[in-house]
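Task 17 of the worksheet. Students: predict the tertiary structure of the chain below and write it out as structure tokens. Keep your answer in the requested format; marks are given for formatting as well as content.
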Amino acid sequence: MLHNKTVVYVLLIATLCTLLLGGCNQPVETHSLEDSDLFKIGVSSSQMSCLVRAVGREEVEVVGPIVPPTICPGHFDIKPSDVVGFSDCCVIFAHTFEPFVDKVVDSVDNPDLQVVRIEVIGAWMEPGKQKEATEKVKNEMKRIFPQKADIFEENAAAYRAEIDRVSVNYQQIFQAHETYQGKVICHEFQKGLLEWMGFEVVGTYPCPDDLTPAMIRELINIGSREKVSLVVDHLQAGPGEGKEIANAIGAKNIGTTFFPGMLAEDGDYFAELDANVQEVITAWDEQRKQQ
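Model answer:
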């Protein structure tokens, strides 16, 4: 005959087993793109990070960027450590000039991972181009996550409005510093940004691999004839690319950036835009004092 305490133990064990087995038979809660509270989105660059965060805000978790803002994405080669975390993403937003993105997809174990490539021709830091890129990112996010379309539309509209507000304020600064009197030579990727600042761009040059001695001689001739004050490099392509031109014509050689996080450490678009503006305006004012 079982002791009373033994009976109690047996009953307790039986009850626990029943509860555990019953719990194992319950359906497991799963999340899909349709019912997830937070969408995990990979980004290739700091520029894409800014855009996806601006449109998605609290609806998204951004993974990345893959490429540091100091490096040109067109010449970036990934390492295994660069793709950590991307296997859990449902989509990667990338530029059209980033060949390494295909390697990222091949490296992660996620057959459902989508890649969305956003193409905007010109200087993405320039407010008009930033707004164009915002629209394209927003449209793709609405397509992929239609259940959040209204939220994405509202967020994108607020971001565009802030870009417009900031841009108007800067135009007043450019007028005060009389940038409309300045002539510059710059890297082709920075042309739109310098024109937005009010400068007349009288010549452009490509990335170092494509810049020939003949091009340099021609730009020196243009710079001397037009009395160019600034030669502005594309920092991701390599600072100092236009130094030979600047030295030959007595201009100042500086650099501006395509990607947030290069000049302003926090990686915010507006902070980076301001850092670019301050870099150029400071150099322009110094050159004007010497003229």
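Marker's comment: Residues 116 and 140 are 8 Å apart (CA to CA). The first strand starts at residue 39 and ends at 43.
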